[in-house]
Structure formats: structure tokens, C-alpha cells
Amino acid sequence: MSEDLEKSAASRAKTSFGFAKVGMDAKQSLVNQVFAKVAPRYDLMNDLMSGGLHRLWKAELLAWLAPPKSAVPYALLDVAGGTGDIAFRFLDSAGKGASAVVCDISAEMIEAGRARANGEGGRLSFVRGNAEALPFADKSFDAYAIAFGMRNLTLIDLGLAEAFRVLKPGGRFLCLEFSSVEMPLLDRLYDAYSFGAIPILGGLVAGDSASYRYLVESIRRFPDQNSFTQLIEDAGFGRVRYRNLTGGIAAIHSAWRL
Ligand code: SAM
User: Is the minimum distance from the CB of 180 to ligand 1 under 6 angstroms?
Assistant: First the structure.
């Protein structure tokens, strides 16, 4: 196929943007518009929407990563890192040898993160970049983490291939993402809360209910725990495991570049 034909086929191919179907080449700019709008209120909204639960889930990710407490160099890449929640927690819990790079496609989210970063000095940096084409050399990180970012990607398999590429052999992959609720009553309560309350809260606090509707809808489009496990294995990772959080509202997947 010629390059032009390939481009036009790619633009006709559809993917999901929440419950809507959009062209493959349109999704990223729609996602970027969402995060440009929500960036100034992102951290506050996270606390309000989850009742603080996201803090426990992120703490669980760090506990599972268990970064070394020593002065041995250990580099984390926090992809779709937004305002840097994972990277900050990592630097708090790891030893003196730890360093973190937050990589995010949104200039607005990075700006909000940088404003929080006073005092971290040279151990923390922010880089603008796409998870599907990371601006880092092969085999450059000891750990790759992505929290609530994977479902925003247009091509999850490309994101996973990039994770594999930038990890050193023996490196650790961790993904925290909303998942499929596996408790019968909780799933109905959760649906009612997320479709009913979250867009209203988004409208009141961030002045933008449509963006929060997208965030809720995109959760339902993300592969369930076992399907995502399969995608991670397909990308070449080994020892893939997951842990459900709060009945499967979220899950952490862990894997290794062996
Ligand atoms: N990781 C942070 C957290 O847990 O609070 C932020 C998560 S926020 C829900 C999703 C982030 O993914 C946004 O900051 C957005 O800009 C970023 N994002 C979306 N598509 C991306 C892509 N293709 N590459 C890198 N970042 C992306």
C-alpha cells in the first residue's frame, strides 16, 4: 500500500473515545483537549471523585514496586504521569539513588506537575512525550509505571511495546488502571455513582462535565483484568500478575522484562 493510502486507511479506522467512535487519528487530540481543560483542577477532582481512594491505590502500586531503599541508582519512568503523583510518591519511598522522569503528552498537566515539584531538585524531571513513541533510549529505566493513563492511549499495544523497549532487562512494569468490578452489588452502585455523580461533580468543580463523562465512559471501554494481562504478555513481558483494588474498581498489573 502507498504511504497516502495507508494514511487515509488509518484515518478511516475507528477507535473509541469514551462511548463515541472516532477516527484513530482524532482520538489523541480529543484526549489532549480533555486534559488541557481539567489540568488546573485535576488533583482536587481526583480526591473528590474517589473520596481519596486513588491515594490508597497509588500507595499500593508503590508498595508492590518496593523500590530499593539504598543509594544504588534506580530510575523510574512515570508515563502519562500528569501532575506527577506516582513519581512524587516513589521519590518519598525510595532510597537516595532513586530518580524519576514524568513523561506526559499534555503541556498543561506537566505545568501543573512542575508547580508541585519545588524541592525535588535533580532527582525529578518532566518531559513532554507520547507513550506510544517515548522519547527515551532503549533499555534506559529500571521501572516503568503508568497510572490511569493506559486507557487514554489510541493504541494500547504500541504503548506496551514502548514500555518493553525502554525498560532494562530485569526491569519492572506496573500499570494502575480502572478495571472491571467483580462484585455483583458493587458494580451497580459504582455505575450509578460514576455515570450520575462524577459528570455533575466535574461540572461544579472543574466547570466541565463533558470531560468527566469521557473519563467515566473510557473506563468501560478498557479491557478487563484478564484481557489486559494477555495484551501485556503479547508485548513480550513475563511473570504478569494483577491485583484487584476495591473489588476490581481498579487493578494493578505487574510484569517484568525478563
Ligand atoms: N498518572 C497521573 C495520575 O495518576 O494522577 C495522571 C493520570 S491522567 C488520568 C491521564 C494522563 O494521561 C493525562 O495527564 C494525559 O495528558 C496523559 N496522556 C494521555 N494520552 C497520552 C499519551 N499518548 N502519551 C502520554 N501521556 C498521555
Answer: no
Q: What is the mean pLDDT of the chain?
A: 92
Q: Does the C-beta of 132 come closer than 6 Å to ligand 1?
A: yes
* Ligand 1 pocket, residue 154 CB under 6 Å: no
Asked whether the predicted pLDDT for residue 199 surpasses 50, the reply is yes
Pocket perturbation via mutation, ligand 1, pick of 79, 104, 222, 252 by most ligand atoms within 8 A of CB = 104
CATH number at 38-256: 3.40.50.150
Query: Against a cut of 0.85, is the pTM above it?
Result: yes
Residues 95 and 69: their CA atoms lie apart, in Å, by 4
Rounded to the nearest whole angstrom, what is the distance from the C-alpha of residue 76 to the centroid of ligand 1?
A: 16
Q: Is the CB of 43 under 6 A from ligand 1?
A: no
33-86 tens-digit pLDDT: 999 999 999 999 899 989 999 999 999 999 999 999 999 999 999 999 999 999
Distance CA 197, CA 182 (A): 21
Distance between CA atoms of residues 29 and 5, nearest Å: 22
Domains of the chain, by residue range, sit at 38-256
Closest ligand 1 atom to 43 CA: 5
